Fold this protein.
Amino acid sequence: MQLTPDVIFGTAIGFLAASMWAVSVVVYRSQSEEIRPLAIGSVKMWVALGFMTLLVTIPWRPNAFSVPFESIIYLALSASLGAVIGDTILFMSQERIGVSYSFPIAMSFPVLTYILAILILGDEISSLRFFGTVVAVLGLILISREQNKGQNNEGSTQFDLIGIGMALFTMVCYAVGTVLLEVGVTGVDPIDANFVRIVIGAIEFVPIYIVASQMGMPTPTRRATKFVAVAGLFGMALGSLLYVMMVKYIGAAMGSVIGSTSPLFAVPVSVVFLKERPTRLALVGILIAISGVILVVGVN
């Protein structure tokens, strides 16, 4: 893939989306004692629904909302697999084996995405770009492990096969969802495409939230809900729109790598706002991840 204006633009908005996710994740972490992860996912999705509804219905849009039925199917599946099923299963995995084990496993999805893009979408094979993807993922995993060190839940078992299986299943959901997104957004306005995805996600989170509440999930505090709602406006509402635009411009394989770089941005944000000190391994991970991203973006 040559560095065309579309590739440069898609890469830029992908990094912008990743930085928004990084900031929002730091906010979510700061409120973790007052709101559970599942509630965070629900609140940010419902906030995104309001934002996307506003964008779709503004009277000065050049084109009216239009998404072919076939595209709706692909977009709905991509939202269900990624933002709903994937995120929910990841939460369940974290409960069993802890964040520092489940999150890195799930975040290795760009490697599988690259393979699926070749097999399903017919992307050209580039051994150097695939190597860059693997290198970037390894660096991001190292950063995530260092950031989430010590966040395993009490009683969690790192080598719980069910928890590991859930994390691997999440990885598959993210990869397949990203590939389906590329198919669904083809020939569709990114705003319309993201609106479909958010509507599906917002609807599906309603029964999930109700069931979780009935099973004992504590009601989030008003203070935490407000913080999460504001962070969700940038992280989920704007971030998801930028992600859809990125995939439209540069594709699922390359986009999954760029979109997963939020740990790179989370490190400086955590230093500034949470007063965390990055470890040497985290800094090494940053260098490795950046090297991999350069290979992914720079290979012609």
